[in-house]
Each structure stands twice: as structure tokens, then as C-alpha cells.
Amino acid sequence: MSDRDDNGALKAAELLSTAGAAVLGAGLALLWPRFGNFAIPLIAVGLVGHAAGMVLKHWLQRGQPQPGWSHTLVWLCWLAMAVLMAGLGWRVMNG
Questions:
Q1: Rounded CA gap, 44 and 79, in Å?
Q2: pLDDT beyond 60 at 69
Q3: Residues 46 and 25: beta-carbon distance below 8 Å
Q4: What's the distance, CA 72 to chain centroid?
Q5: How many CB atoms lie within 10 A of CB 17?
Q6: Fewer CB within 10 Å: N-end or C-end of the chain?
Q7: How many CB atoms lie within 10 A of CB 67?
Q8: Rounded to an integer, what distance in angstroms lies between the CA atom of residue 30 and that of residue 40?
């Protein structure tokens, strides 16, 4: 793959990650009772989209040096998503 293709794929991965985070945020905002029917599907789609974008971006950047703080932020993001998934699972199971 050429550098130009790599840059385009990297930008696409960043966009997917950002869009996933935006949908996740929309789902969290909709947790209020009036919009509750839409919250769980939006949170699930947002989590999957954000995670896919993060994985793809890191796969595209493998072998490239990254600042140490970026690794910390990535792991904090994965931890936050795991907590959200656990909360979402609890909410689905307990109605």
C-alpha cells in the first residue's frame, strides 16, 4: 500500500472512531426516560464503531513511533468502553 493510501485509510479510521464516539455520546444523552427506546441501540452502535475505528487506526500505525501518553489514553478508552458495556449489559438484564 502506498503512503497516499495509508494516509487515506488512517483518516478513514479516525473518522470511523470519531463517528462511533459521537453516536455513543448521542446514545448516552438519550438515556433520559423520554428517549430511552433509542439509547441502547445507539450506545451499542457507537461502541462498535468507535472500537473498530480505534483498532483499524492502530493497525495502520503499527511500527510507527507513538508518544507514551497516547498509549495511556487508548487503554483508558478501552477501560471506559468496558465499563459502559458492563453497565449496558446490567441495564438490559435488569430492565
A1: 16
A2: yes
A3: yes
A4: 15
A5: 21
A6: C
A7: 8
A8: 9
